[in-house]
Write a structure and sequence with these properties.
With 154 residues, the protein is an alpha+beta fold. Helices cover 16% and strands 29% of the residues. The chain is built from 2 helices and 13 strands. Strand 4 and strand 5 form a beta hairpin. The longest helix has 20 residues. It is globular. About 14% of the residues have low confidence.
Length: 154
């Protein structure tokens, strides 16, 4: 277990260092939440096919990640919030499309939510459909995917 935690931590640090080199993400005008078949089953993804994550340390309509920094790395750098300027849309396959909404972040930006839990992408996902970081333990909580039926994928 200790080896897995160390591996996850090193992956997060590597991803965070790469993120620091990248430009600051800009909120999409509108995000489309879709369902994609992966090795972990059908899960929620953004319009580009990248896995969407929930953070277990978050509360309903509260992004806790934006307040966390560990070892000089900001949580929101490694796990960027899925931000929009317009209402998100839902593609086919999602069993409960009415559970997609937004919450307002400090500063006024809108973050997409599912069942009132903020949604994130992960800077270490380099290709659509990657699910390697589902179940990662980082920044004081676990990062899970979401199934088409609305259940956490651990």
């Amino acid at each position: 277990m200790k080896r897995i935690q160390m591996l996850v931590a090193s992956l997060l640090i590597t991803g965070s260092c790469l993120a620091a080199l990248a430009a600051t993400p800009v909120a999409a005008s509108a995000a489309t939440i879709e369902v994609r078949e992966t090795s972990r089953g059908k899960i929620l993804v953004d319009e580009a096919g990248f896995t969407l994550y929930v953070f277990t340390a978050d509360k309903k309509h509260q992004d806790h990640c934006i307040t966390i920094e560990e070892n000089g790395v900001k949580c929101s750098t490694a796990w960027p919030p899925l931000e929009v300027t317009e209402a998100p849309t839902v593609g086919p396959g999602l069993k409960h499309p009415n559970r997609i909404s937004t919450t307002t972040l400090p500063g006024g930006a809108k973050q997409v939510t599912f069942k009132k839990k903020p949604l994130y992408t992960y800077i270490g996902d380099f290709m659509p459909g990657q699910v390697n970081y589902i179940g990662a333990l980082a920044f004081g909580g676990f990062w899970y995917g979401i199934s088409a039926r609305g259940m956490m994928v651990r």
